[in-house]
Design a protein that fits this description.
single chain, about 850 residues, alpha+beta, Elastase, domain 1, 4 domains, disordered N terminus, hydrolase, zymogen, Peptidase_M4/M1_CTD_sf
Amino acid sequence: MRRLFVAALAAAGLAGTLAHDSHNVSRRKTLSFGPVHPHASYHTNPVYHTSLLRASEDPLDVARLFVEDLVRDIRGSDFVVRKDSYTDEATGITHAYVRQYINGIEVADGDINVNIKDGVVLSYGDSFFRPKTTTTFNVADAVSSKVDPHADYCRTLEDEIASQLRQVDRTSRKAPVEASALEQLSYLYEWNCNFVDAPDIMAQDIEFSAAEDVASRDISRALLQFMLAATPSEDLQQEIMDDPSKFIPKMHVSFEHHMSEQPFFTIENAPDAVNPVKGRLAFIQVPEGNSTTLQLVFKFEVEMKDNWYEAAVSAEAPHRIISVVDWASDSPVPVAPVPKDSEGATYNVFAWGINDPSVGERSIQKENFDALASPLGWHALPYANDPHSESVRPKDASKIRNTTTTWGNNVFAHEDWEGRNNWVNNYRPDAGSSKAFDFKYSPKKTDTTDALEEAQKYINATVTQLFYTSNLVHDLFYRYGFNEVSGNFQQHNFGRGGQENDAVIANAQDGSGYNNANFMTPPDGQNGRCRMYLWNTANPYRDGDLEAGIVIHELAHGLSTRLTGGPANSGCLGWGEAGGMGEGWGDFLATTIRSNKNYSDYAMGSWAANRDNGIRNYPYSLNETVNPSTYQTLDKPGYWGVHAIGEVWAQILWVVSQKLIEKHGFVDDLFPPKPLEDGTIPEGDFYRKAEFTADGKPKPLVPKHGNSLIFQLVLDGMKLQPCRPSFFDARDAIIAADQALTGGENLCELWEGFAARGLGVDAAVKNRTPWGGGVRTNGHALPKQCKKAGEPEPPTEPAPGDGDDDGDDDDWPWLQWVVEKTAVFSWSWRL
């Protein structure tokens, strides 16, 4: 196996530097890589097709007809409109998610998302496979493909490491910073590439290939090959390499067939998996020269102690890993220490808006901030949806269970000192019939050997805070459109659509490590899992559960993963710019929530990490001296990882948000007004005066203020953007969201904000890799419609698509069309 980085670091003499001041940081092993899709495109201009003339009023019929016209020349191809498609009640936009099938087999990354309103296709993303020729695709070619994206990824990572090593100046004071960037690459390499050669080695192993049943053999071998790479246990890795034959007979494969769905299978007793592994046969698109081909794979869903993977492994030996997405998302490791008012529960907590103990005191707060989002409050759910054993359920399971602990319809919060996957019966504070969760919190400085025990004394206060913050995040996200049909996290959905039984499992003081946090986001209908850690960066230890920004960041992973590409697809934000934006949205939303009318710069995680600048490279700031991040910053050493990419995206959004605040002002409370008794939402001082269409239908409510408006546009943009979006796609989706919501009245302010940090209309990227590489060019130009005297003109010649060298037409024709024709088509967005 490969040990390039360890040897290279030793040669460079940086091993001691990297080990400096580690503070026993918890580093969760994670795999994440996959092939690029050079043909993928995102189109944000209204699209009209002749087929729409015969469409019914059903938007899903419009989607079907539109996709039929779009892909009619692909021989052997079919598609289905996925069941998680939905209509956003607030905007009236239907988000239709379409999955491709070739010869009856799913193309797991063949997606078209179509956004429709009033019979018009507003925008769509397209990553459908298109064969090199017009002949029907030969499945045999997909089975025998020799393409190896895993090896390609590792070779590129090796080149990046070697390049950065050549730039390290060990005599410079900057060496620790350079070494930190190399350290992150070292973990990427060690986790992702240590077993890249194993498939070829094990394919030649007679013991590995021996099995009685061919189907079970191939599935078990492919899964065992993945578990070899995925497990963090070196002992288990060695066991698998020494004697793989002892594992395969224990891995029992069961097949299930359904009339309307592809057959799938489960594998029991996979080593290091905590539950039976789900799997199915599928295709994955992989680049081959200047075109794209298909690879036949087994698609596995593997739940482990610290990870929840969606992995594609080639169906034929050698069983290579083609792509892998970890549904668990981490907070980054720091580089240095760092109902009615008279009813309901009460909590002694740091109130909403107080980010951490350094900026405020605890106070008594009331339950059930928003009855629209949480009709039963925070401590009630139907027995039918209660994960507790059957013994606690009455005969009528529809009855409501009221709890006196931190157990409810949105969140199950509890301690997890053992750091294991058990949770149903974990300890939770019980406030009794009064539901007054009033617990002491006053940790003292102790000897370091007692610091953990001292922190654990206050678990009641910790769990209460986590429960309170998480429920408010649920309610806030709900009011901006993250509801049941779009995939939010609830045990009971009140008959409002979506999949049930997926409230957030929230672990306080998780014992699996320190100085971290993460969130696992499976598809809609499976519980999300939030794990919060203690931080041993100070004495007494600091508790991540008490820093609201970290909790909000983690819960935002569930938001962005479920909204991007549809609630049933958790694989759209796995790596590269897409994965980075998954991190960046969390930072941006957390920072927006804590901000106030008197502008300030903000750092992420500064209290928990005991470090003024927090756990990012820079605080979020309008001052380019304080935070110089631009789009081109992604080309710098140390910006391969999703967290570094994410902070660039969050900084860009922070600048964009200030443009809207300059124009529309600031609202102190981001929560919309509570609903009236008849269910209608009053305008208050939060929304603009309600408007109606010519036939009397209400138009979407528009937030009046800049900070609430950008919050809405960011969430709406997530719904509009395609699976695996680039920075350009997400930018265009936010601009398209404003067009749909306001008729495009903020077009220039949005472009000014994006252009200020390099994402103007002339921004470009060449040779972008799916994990973040490429050569970027900052663009500061605005559309002609927004140009002011003395500002640069956009290029006179159209740029090649979205800068991805894919030859598509999704940017320049639309941008020029917007400049010239906005007034012509704006009516179709406002009906």
